[in-house]
DNA sequence: GGTTGACCCTGTAAATAGTACAGGGTTTAT
DNA sequence: ATAAACCCTGTACTATTTACAGGGTCAACC
């Protein structure tokens, strides 16, 4: 019987053992086949999927969004259109996240630089990391409301 | 009485009204002063802080991590050393997140490209987004266990 | 002054994501 | 055969966020 046990997958992917059961319950992964004793046996593809989930979660995607991401594939049955729309939206989100993180990194670098030169600052410089969400500026039309499928 | 009400801050920062109470309970923000009737009145700095929290959450930081980030400042009282260590660690985390997101963006671009050309395929290209977490490769010594402060 | 609607307060409960644990079975090794 | 290290299930807990019920306050309008 080829396959990986729960703890093996968990170790390789850096997730908690229990999360695997949770992802199964949430239907992010298919229920893996079992050994005669009832032990789950994960395939290599399962492990890849789980690694992906772990990373995407770490980047702030919800499980629902991750499910969407994983369903993004070019399917013979459907036209590409819905996939394209979703992929482009995700791309925009990812792009914004990168910009925000770069901004944060820049701020951290400045802080580190000051620290190395022992320049004292009592205010918290990192708070000004995000130009995009600075309050006091009215957002025009940029409604960040709940995103639907 | 100068200040912003709960709903004003929530609107400006793009957070749910109720989150403000939660952040107060979790001590990420100081309890704001109240009007005679007991209404919370947030300062501009509160709003900046809340906007920061919102963004950092969106990037996958936990509230505890965000609290750490907000406490990063060069203080007369303490030596810079601990700040330096923390800032550098955060920088590393941020850097890794950027790398992961870039990898994801690349995959999305490939998917979009395929989709635009209507190249039909049934496997899910997005799963290969994260080279950094590819299972099947033994991590040597790189224990990604729980990160401590 | 009274009423209405939009706001605020509190406490509590739900939903999502993840973890922990109890009570028990299985595998492996000695 | 017995101990250690796994696995199973169900359940219950944390963290973060959101929703709701029951009630008070404010501004406007008649």
Describe the protein:
- 2 copies of one chain form a homodimer.
- Chain A is mostly helical and 149 residues long.
- Chain A has helices at residues 6-13, 17-25, 44-58, 63-71, 81-116.
- The radius of gyration of chain A is 21 Å and the shape is flat.
- Chain A is built from 5 helices and no strands.
- Helix content of chain A is 52%, strand content 0%.
- Residues 132-149 of chain A have low confidence and may be disordered.
- The longest helix of chain A has 36 residues, at 81-116.
- Chain A has 2 domains: 6-62, Multidrug-efflux Transporter Regulator, Chain: A, Domain 2, CATH 1.10.1660.10; 81-132.
- At the A-B interface, helix 1, helix 3, helix 4 and helix 5 of A face helix 1, helix 3 and helix 5 of B.
Summary?
By secondary structure, chain A is mostly helical. Helices cover 52% and strands 0% of the residues of chain A.
Task: Describe this protein with a few key phrases.
Multidrug-efflux Transporter Regulator, Chain: A, Domain 2, 149 residues, DNA-binding, 2 domains, flat, 5 helices, disordered C terminus, mainly alpha, 0% strand, homodimer
């Amino acid at each position: 019987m080829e396959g990986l046990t729960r703890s093996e997958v968990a170790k390789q992917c850096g997730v908690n053992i229990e999360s695997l059961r949770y992802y199964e319950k949430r239907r992010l992964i298919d229920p893996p086949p079992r050994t005669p004793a009832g032990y789950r046996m994960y395939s290599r593809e399962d492990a890849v999927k789980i690694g992906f989930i772990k990373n995407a979660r770490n980047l702030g995607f919800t499980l629902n969004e991750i499910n969407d991401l994983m369903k993004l594939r070019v399917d013979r049955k459907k036209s590409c259109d819905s996939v394209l729309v979703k992929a482009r939206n995700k791309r925009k989100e990812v792009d914004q996240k990168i910009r925000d993180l770069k901004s944060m990194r820049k701020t951290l670098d400045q802080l580190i630089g000051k620290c190395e030169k022992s320049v004292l600052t009592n205010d918290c410089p990192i708070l000004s990391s995000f130009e995009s969400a600075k309050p006091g500026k009215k957002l025009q039309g940029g409604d960040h409301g709940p995103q639907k499928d």
